[in-house]
Specification:
heterodimer, A: mainly alpha, Fumarate Reductase Cytochrome B subunit, 2 domains, two-stranded antiparallel ribbon, 74% helix, B: alpha+beta, Alpha-Beta Plaits, 4-stranded mixed β-sheet, 8 helices, 32% helix, 19% strand, binds protoporphyrin IX containing FE, binds iron/sulfur cluster
Chain lengths: 241, 266
């Protein structure tokens, strides 16, 4: 595909390669669409200063919305697993930490704040930051599910002590996942380096050039990616940077 | 305002259950689940507190040092000095009034049921739809409406055995301690006063003739540790974490905008 950028004489050509399936993209946005109301309606019970919203009929309404959204939030990953089990497992694997993640996270401030990505260790399908986001969300999903169902159906069946732990863990999962979500939101919509991520989540494709630069292990395969990385490091050392 | 309390002398209770009836009548409570009373093997009736039964006499068969006898316990909210239900209620429906009464305003309750799970005495009960979670919690309020108008709670007013008394807490404590001494002098060696210091001092004081456990009362009830942890640590932690994240993102955004220009990005 060719794109004509404003202020540039020549058109540039972007080669698109597939990254996400339709189900993954629709699932991702529905998960977002359920997560946001879940966070808002949950906070109504959580923050003392929102007490007026928690009272009486308003509070009943927010609790009902929380439960309805929770069903969507809880069921989506299960649907994904049922219809695309291989993709599901592949993606979970991709989220697991690897050797390069430490080096990448160390370089992350310079990468995100100053755009220095030349020295970043090669990354797979997801970079270490995206992995962190994915892992926090996966763990939070499990905690939300277990503790949420306990709070929903457990009164009078489970011991009160268990219920108390559930509220506490539900809150901790909320704090971790909402912080992660805010960072994720910022990087996805406002960070100049991350434009390709938003494109892939909307249209399912990513630019080949971007993938080669930012997801080399995925684009070239681990071996070739490391070779390119080592060569680049040697080059940088020779030119004295 | 001076703290009020109910003194319940279980050595006087005859288990006539007039208090149960008076409570239902004054507070407009209906039958609940057990409305079709049947013989279920005990004089006790109904078998448990419920959203419609705020007080009831619990029957226990007790084999004490002086042989078998019944123990009667008038169950209901303890009106704790340090009420966990009030601390965990997200709506403010549960309140501790300046006279010590722990009251529940049904219009404010949204039915979340936290109070039912954090109360150390398992008192508030939820009338709820399990699926939607819509409903209300309810419990004894010491007849707040009567008491603030200078009347006695309905159960106290009705008790024919004079086992119930209500008034200034210090006066009730003094009466209770004196009663315990009198009982001991008459040979009730296990007599004791329950509620003096438990959970901030209870607003419901019991003169008992056997150890609290024999009545099914917790020997050492505690304000739930997780309630303090949740309210004092986790809630502030959330505000700090969100604040720090938002400030961090804004800072990062400003730095990034100065350093990375869109045109240079491939
Ligand atoms: C599987 C998903 C979830 C289920 C089944 C679930 C269920 C529940 C239930 C049953 C309650 C208690 C209130 C009530 O009974 O209506 C609750 C409270 C709450 N939920 Fe969820 N929830 C889920 C996901 C989430 C998510 C994703 C968030 C936030 C990002 C969240 C945040 C909260 C908060 C903050 C509270 C209030 C806890 C408090 O009072 O401190 N929940 N949830
Ligand atoms: S006994 Fe339970 S419901 Fe009554 S004041 Fe104490 S904590 Fe609240």
């Amino acid at each position: 595909m060719t794109v004509q950028l404003r202020g540039r004489a020549e058109a540039i050509t972007i080669q698109w390669i597939p990254k996400y399936t339709l189900l993954e993209r629709v699932g991702h946005w529905l998960h977002t669409a359920s997560f946001v109301p879940l966070a808002i309606t949950g906070m109504v019970l959580y923050f003392p200063f929102l007490q007026p919203l928690a009272q009486g009929a308003a509070g009943e309404f927010f609790r009902l919305v929380h439960r309805a959204a929770a069903v969507i939030f809880g069921v989506l990953p299960v649907i994904y697993f049922i219809f695309q089990p291989r993709r599901f497992i592949m993606n979970i694997r991709e989220f697991l930490p690897s050797k390069e993640d430490i080096g990448w996270l160390r370089g992350a401030p310079a990468y995100y704040l100053f755009g220095r990505h030349e020295a970043m260790p090669p990354q797979g399908r997801f970079n270490a930051g995206e992995k962190l986001n994915g892992l926090v969300m996966i763990i939070a999903w499990v905690i939300f599910g277990i503790t949420g169902l306990l709070m929903w159906f457990g009164k009078g069946i489970a011991s009160p002590e268990l219920f108390r732990w559930a509220v506490l863990l539900h809150d901790l999962a909320m704090i971790a996942s909402v912080c992660m979500f805010l960072v994720h939101l910022y990087l996805a919509v406002a960070h100049p380096l991350m434009w390709a991520a938003l494109v892939s989540m909307r249209f399912g494709v990513t630019s080949a050039e971007y993938a080669a630069e930012h997801h080399a292990k995925w684009y070239y395969g681990p071996k070739r990616a490391m070779e390119i990385y080592e060569a680049r490091k040697r080059e940088a050392a020779r030119s004295g940077h | 305002m001076a703290r009020l309390a109910m003194l319940i002398d279980e050595s006087q209770c005859t288990a006539c259950r007039g208090c149960q009836v008076a409570c239902k009548q004054w507070n407009d409570r209906e039958g609940w689940l057990y409305s079709r009373t049947r013989n279920w093997g005990s004089y006790e009736n109904p078998p448990d507190l419920s959203p419609q039964t705020w007080t009831r006499i619990k029957f226990t068969e007790y084999e004490g040092p002086d042989g078998f006898h019944w123990l009667f316990l008038k169950e209901g909210c303890m009106h704790c000095g340090n009420p966990a239900c009030v601390a965990v209620c997200p709506t403010g429906a549960l309140k501790q009034q300046s006279n010590g009464l722990v009251t529940l305003e049904p219009e404010l309750c949204n039915g979340c049921g936290y109070c039912t799970q954090f109360c150390p005495f398992h008192i508030p009960r939820l009338e709820t739809d399990v699926l939607t979670g819509q409903g209300k919690s309810s419990k004894c309020t010491f007849c707040q409406d009567r008491v603030t108008n200078g009347l006695l709670p309905a159960c106290v007013k009705t008790c024919p055995a004079k086992a119930l008394d209500f008034g200034d807490r210090e006066e009730m404590v003094a009466k209770g301690l004196a009663r315990v001494e009198a009982l001991k002098a008459r040979g009730f060696t296990q007599a004791n006063l329950y509620g003096l210091n438990e959970v901030g001092g209870l607003g419901r004081l019991y003169v008992l003739v056997a150890p609290p456990e024999a009545y099914g009362l917790p020997a050492n009830p505690q304000y739930p540790a997780l309630a303090s942890f949740w309210q004092k640590i986790v809630q502030p932690l959330g505000s700090v974490a969100f604040g720090a994240t938002i400030v961090g993102i804004l800072g990062a955004f400003l730095i990034t905008r100065r350093n990375i220009r869109m045109e240079e990005v491939r």
